[in-house]
Amino acid sequence: MTPFPAKNQPATPASADRRPRLAVIAVFFVHGFLFASWTAHIPQLQHHLGLSDGRLGLALLGAPIGSVLAMVVAARLLPIVGSQPMVRLALVGYCVSGPIIGLTGSLGTFFVAFLLWGFFQGTLDVSMNTQAITVERFSGRVLMPGFHGSWSTGALVGAVTGAAAVGLGLSLSEQLLALAVPCLLVVGWLTTSLIADQRAGSDPEPSEGRPDRRSGVLQGAVLVLGGIAFADMLCEGAAADWAAVYLRNSLHAVPFVAGLGYAAYALAMLTVRLSGNRIFTRFAAHRVLPLLAAMGSLGFAAGLVIARPVTLLVGFALLGAGLGSVVPLILSAAGAVDNVDTGKAVAAVAGCGWVGYVVGPVVIGEIASTTTLQIALFLIPVLAGTVAVATGMAKALRRGALPADAAPSSRRAGVRTRTPAE
Questions:
Q1: Rounded Cα distance, 267 and 49, in Å
Q2: How far from the centroid of its chain's Cα atoms is residue 194's Cα?
Q3: What is the CATH number of the domain that holds 56?
Q4: Contact 124, 183 (CB under 8 A)
Q5: What is the rounded distance in angstroms from the CA atom of residue 393 to the CA atom of residue 53?
Q6: Mean pLDDT of the residues in the chain
């Protein structure tokens, strides 16, 4: 497929793609908003179901397992159905299945309900990213970091909303129902502006003298991007689950400061993502991503070595800034791999990321059980350093995989666009 506008094709005027862009922004926001809004209810849910910490951990695996299953199903359906209808179907399932979680009364029923919600969450994740690539491709501009910035904004607002709902005494089902209705009505209406995907196989046949890229090479490109997603999301999962624990138990920070660890990471990530459209329009991804990831790796490692709450908070912030743009850009690059359907590529890469997110906290815990948590957390800067090297070497991030490499806007910004011969 031709992933983005040809190099001599003007970028789509901003007014022409405004409604599809707003629709994708809204879907990303709602995805993060609804999921983050439920997390404040976990302690109350644990008490309601009478679960120990170990059984709660088992129960919370439902959504990740459902999401991974969704990646497999979405990879098969997206090339047939397209992301436009799948976004709308997954959005309905996501909004409708959420309130069911709060109605469960046992570990088994909760696990099944949470798995169902996770399935629709994962389906929406893959389909909305596929649609985002379609809109980015249509626009001819770098948009993915901004779309993911909308998800981070939604997650931040959702976390605050959930905490407020708990404070007001609302149950989980009441909250998710109250939030799902306007989300479904408003965002569902906006999704009518989504656009059809470009179909795989729309490219012309390879011209004489032009190498025909075989499936093995293409699968290798997607595999490399999936490996980067795995390492990146492993770091994020570990940071989310172990930041407060390390700050509180190992560095003896007060509870408020301990709670700021992941907040520093998330806010720095949000800032980088919201400015990512502009950054990656002006500068090549394979040059900027390694610099950011290296900064995150060194900054977090320094925070661990100095081992003071303030320096570790700075380390978490640098890590969030260093890794914040990795997933949006590699998903965009995955959608640009020649002769591979966008939905299949996105599902494969996103699936690898989800596995990393789930595995990360477990791996850190196992290492910590035989050494110390400080030593275990050094896995994070090691993996961030690996991401820095991999993003600099990945061919999928070098060969014009991003709209800025094709769009005239990059030339207007003073960045020379490569020719095919280069």
A1: 33
A2: 20
A3: 1.20.1250.20
A4: no
A5: 42
A6: 84
Same-domain check for residues 181 and 257: no
Neighbours of 338 (CB within 10 A): 18
Q: Mean pLDDT over residues 207-218, rounded?
A: 42
| Maximum distance among all Cα pairs of the chain, rounded to whole angstroms | 69
Query: CA separation (Å) from 30 to 73, 100, 142, 182, 319?
Result: 22, 18, 21, 10, 25
Give the tens place of pLDDT for each residue, 347-385.
899 989 988 988 888 888 889 889 999 999 999 999 999
Q: What is the pLDDT of residues 52-74, one digit of tens each?
A: 867 887 888 888 889 889 988 99
- Domain with 36 in it: 1-198
Regarding whether 59 and 143 lie in a shared domain, the answer is: yes
Q: Which residues contact 82 (CB under 8 A, 6 or more apart)?
A: 196, 197
Q: Counting runs of H as helices and runs of E as strands, what totals does the chain give? A: 18, 0
When divided into structural domains, the chain yields a total of: 2
Contact in structure between 183 and 95 (CB atoms under 8 Å): yes
Quick one: tokens of 196?
């059809």
At 13, the pLDDT band (50, 70, 90 cuts) reads low
DSSP-derived secondary structure letter, 275: H
Residues 6+ apart with CB under 8 A from 157: 29, 33, 36
The contacts of residue 297 (CB under 8 Å, 6+ apart) are 319, 322, 381, 382, 384, 385, 387, 388
H or E stretch covering 211: none
Answer yes or no: is 348 within a domain.
yes
Average pLDDT in the 149-153 region?
92
Query: What per-residue confidence (pLDDT) applies to 248?
Result: 86
Closest CA to 322 of 290, 362, 276, 357: 290
- Residue 1 Cα distances to 44, 142, 143, 206, 208, angstroms: 49, 18, 20, 11, 18
